[in-house]
Specification:
This protein has 306 residues and is of the alpha+beta class. The chain has nine helices and eight strands. Helix 4 packs antiparallel against helix 5 and helix 6 runs antiparallel to helix 9. It starts with a strand and ends with a helix.
Length: 306
Amino acid sequence: MFIRSQRPNFHLSLVRPSAMEATFISQIKIPKNPNRRFSRPPVDFPRFIRASSSASQQERKSYRGPKPSKNLVADFVSRNDDSVRSLPIYVGGASLLAVLFNRAVSGIAPVADASSSQSRADLLALGLAVTNLLTGLVWLSIRPKTITPVEPEGVDCKVLESNLPASILSELLWAWESLKVATCCKSLVIVYNGICLIQIGMAAESPEDKKAVIVNTDKMMNGSVYRGVMKSKAQSYLANLSLYPGRSELPFLPPNTQAVILQPLGDKGVAVIGGNTIRGFTSSDQAWISSIGEKLDATLGRCFID
């Protein structure tokens, strides 16, 4: 092998060896040493494993994490509510018949004798049987009332303030569409700065002209419900509107409105939201409506500047 220097900076280049040199190199045998260690460890290439569907299914089957607990007794009672409520009557009736039958076949005199232990036991058993009968009757007479949504009685209404900018109108309509889709809201009235900006959804029907009852802002703002909300600066939730005397201060809502939320909009207005279900607005709905009220107050505050 010949080495030729090309430049003084000692960069070397290899010259192709001749045939004789190649033959000489091939005859050289290098002994094998299994204990020989290389100064540079071999490169460990990463291995890629393809996950198969069977492996994932096996892992899914072998999942041992927490699982939701089941109450078998509660499930059975919920599926057989009528039978469970009638069960004390059957038990009490069977116990009463058993006591009377035992009294008849035992040969004891039918008149109760306080000195007899059998008579005292029969009296105690009769008291327990009658208690079971009365318990069953109470369970059958007292049932939880199912709460179902109602269809609002009234007419469809859509009244918007004409002098509002297009951006304000679009925001009010967005609030209405959001409440109508996400909650049990069927009516929406927003009064701000003494003006009814929007009345949309179902409204009470006027007996004179069969049209929607328009909001009287002066009468509403002088009512105790409006003044109480503006004084507290907090949301007021009337879960069952029929139980509140302030129902008469909201005559523009359908007469069978089940629940109402009065959401203050800063210190200048309030949003009246009517629903068709008793206790239909959940706690998350109330928190979300509060956020919408803050957003509407910030938007309307830029438009109505004193």
